[in-house]
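Q: I have 126 residues here and want to know how they pack in 3D. Can you give me a structure?
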Amino acid sequence: MKALVVDDAKVVRVSLGRMMKQLGYEVLEAADGAQGEEQMAANPDVDVVMLDWNMPVMNGYDFLVGLRKNPAHAVSPRVIMVTTETGIGQMLKALAAGADEYIMKPFDKDMVMSKLDILGLEYADS
């Protein structure tokens, strides 16, 4: 199982990465959407992307739109937005663009596990 954490805040990448590792995932990181695209090109077997919205270079929304335009990634990997963008309009826009779930910061391991459950993604509960 492989997860890609895309967030410009290193503390979030480390925290979320640690949670995902505890859940049995190999974790890849990217500091913006452009790096996320590079990681996806190098790792087409990513199962889930944990994606921030507001980042420099390329934001999460633009990454998501580009990801879903690629026929190989139209449905997989699953994408969970992990963001401070709490407006219903932003949520609907992300879901319409192909996000599968939405977590609002701050978050905890139980929240991450519940979203993985909703998406039917496996994890090791440790």
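Q: Anything worth noting?
A: Residues 2-114 form a domain with the Rossmann fold fold (CATH 3.40.50.2300). The chain has one domain: 2-114.
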